[in-house]
Amino acid sequence: xxxxxxxxxxxxxxxxxxxxxxxxxxxxxxxxxxxxxxxxxxxxxxxxxxxxxxxxxxxxxxxxxxxxxxxxxxxxxxxxxxxxxxxxxxxxxxxxxxxxxxxxxxxx
Length: 108
Prior knowledge:
By secondary structure, the protein is mostly helical.
């Protein structure tokens, strides 16, 4: 619950900050279930296989919509011990040096 209020407070402060040159601020809030689905989310799934073709198509659609939105800032939910790893990935991505990893899953 503490993390929720921290995120909410951060979002509130970000929304109250004056815009650089545009008085209109567009905000997109995207919430998803936890992909490892430990059963703690409000939404329960019988089959939350993120690697299925259907789920991958849904992920690609969201990615394309985010790309079209072209956000200036992205906030994610994570634990503090992951901060350095995430920051490193973001830096590599911005530098154009981050290579997406392809995961091959054998079925059957």
